[in-house]
Amino acid sequence: xxxxxxxxxxxxxxxxxxxxxxxxxxxxxxxxxxxxxxxxxxxxxxxxxxxxxxxxxxxxxxxxxxxxxxxxxxxxxxxxxxxxxxxxxxxxxxxxxxxxxxxxxxxxxxxxxxxxxxxxxxxxxxxxxxxxxxxxxxxxxxxxxxxxxxxxxxxxxxxxxxxxxxxxxxxxxxxxxxxxxxxxxxxxxxxxxxxxxxxxxxxxxxxxxxx
Length: 211
Ligand code: AP5
Description:
Layout: E1 2-6, H1 13-24, E2 27-30, H2 31-41, H3 44-55, H4 61-68, E3 78-81, H5 87-100, E4 106-111, H6 114-122, E5 124-127, E6 133-135, E7 152-153, H7 160-174, H8 177-183, E8 187-191, H9 196-210
Parallel strand pairs: 1-3, 1-4, 2-3, 4-8
Antiparallel strand pairs: 5-6, 5-7
This protein binds BIS(adenosine)-5'-pentaphosphate.
BIS(adenosine)-5'-pentaphosphate binds near residues 53 and 89.
């Protein structure tokens, strides 16, 4: 399985990719996680990308493509979460796949309104121990510390200003990729406003059709 999960910030790409990965064994490759890990390492690259991340801006293409590429190697089944985000990245992905002799199976676009997305991102909490994502109402962090000891914190880029900026960038640069992949007969859309498990069911059905 080689698929892309496309969608606006807060649509549930990370949530669904992690559930899909648990159920199918496919590797979950999230460029946001790669960026946050680099920031946490304190490296020069981490310091450079932190400014973009905290503002909610895209990391420049040449930097993110180099950070992303090594993660494609070695896994024969993967779910891309957060990459590509514009046409130039989509083309870079095509070239990387061609070099590796691989082919994309499909693209699943998760769809939800901006109003719903802002509510979701404001309630999002991430575990510092496991990196797992929760929502204070829709998917509360477990009370049992054996399952996830936390602490459960709000991401630095989940401020109102950064959320608005990220959604603007999504509509301008990432949303046109739906047409790009529809033209290549790779796109399936899923209603991401349903409950988390219903979205998972629809995504699994779409993956089944595409793979
Ligand atoms: P990234 O971490 O990818 O952030 P993002 O794009 O803002 O996406 P999110 O993680 O916010 O959304 P999601 O769709 O994964 O939602 P989630 O599952 O958490 O990227 C961070 C930064 O890195 C970028 O801003 C940029 O700087 C840089 N970057 C990354 N990739 C890049 C690239 N390709 N190019 C350049 N720069 C790049 O769900 C959200 C919340 O909703 C959670 O609380 C969840 O529990 C809840 N939820 C999920 N589904 C449901 C549901 N069905 N019902 C109710 N609640 C739900």
